[in-house]
Design goal:
The protein is α/β, with parallel strands linked by helices. Among the domains are: 13-46, no CATH class; 97-210, Zincin-like (2-Layer Sandwich). The chain contains 7 helices and 7 strands. It has a 4-stranded mixed sheet. Strands 5-7-6 form a 3-stranded mixed sheet, covered by helices on one side. α2 crosses α7 (195-210) and α5 (161-173) packs across α7 (195-210). The longest helix has 31 residues, at 95-125.
């Protein structure tokens, strides 16, 4: 069950298209009740934050874990003000430009917040990431490569800061331990004891974050 595409059936390529379709359809039919429940749950989770995910005037998107309405205002640049994301009127008049500028702004905010968190936690954890990379993941929120690159989804800026922080600490811990074994867990829990709980909350609201476009 993908947060954006809904139900996906994956089959081995060796089966061929005709057999794959036949077996997938039979599998789906057999589990139709479970699938219906899962789709309903996905829709409910997607609406958890009371947002529609639309990057347009009067659209409601999550930001910092709270619903914010996008509005046109007499401002010089995009900024947050009392539960609203205010955008200059000149940008608001062009839907394509508005979407592009809002996307860029959200990515810049994500990088700024991630950098602040890394600057706090990296010295405490005695690690030195080499590079911060932002992507557009909606399920794998972060990763850490052997060369010291920390990759994060820009969508973390939409989540509660506590969830953003959990992903940052999780990935920094991989600079100490590559796997998810006892040593890794010990590092994470030393610096953020409730990391697992925060990660579960992030997965709960993932559909609402993934809906922003």
């Amino acid at each position: 069950m993908h947060p954006e595409r809904g139900l996906e059936a994956v089959v081995p390529a060796r089966l061929g298209e005709e057999r794959a379709r036949r077996e997938a359809e039979a599998f789906i039919e057999k589990r139709a009740r479970w699938i219906d429940r899962a789709i309903a749950e996905l829709a409910e989770r997607r609406a958890t934050l009371g947002t529609d995910g639309l990057l347009e005037i009067n659209g409601m998107i999550p930001y910092g874990g709270r619903a914010h309405k996008i509005i046109a205002a007499a401002v010089g640049s995009i900024h947050v003000n009392n539960g609203a994301i205010e955008v200059p009127a000149a940008i608001a008049r062009d839907p394509a430009l508005l979407r592009r500028r809002l996307s860029d702004w959200l990515r810049r905010r994500a990088r700024a917040v991630a950098t602040q968190m890394i600057d706090v936690y990296a010295p405490q954890m005695r690690v030195a990431p080499k590079r911060l990379r932002l992507g557009d993941q909606t399920t794998l929120w972060g990763s850490c490569s052997p060369d010291g690159t920390i990759s994060l989804s820009w969508r973390l800026i939409l989540a509660p800061p506590s969830c953003f922080e959990a992903v940052v600490v999780h990935e920094l811990a991989h600079l100490r331990s590559r796997g998810h074994g006892p040593r890794f867990r010990a590092v994470v829990e030393r610096h953020l004891p409730d990391e697992a709980e925060r990660m579960r909350e992030l997965q709960r609201i993932a559909p609402a974050l993934g809906a922003v476009k």
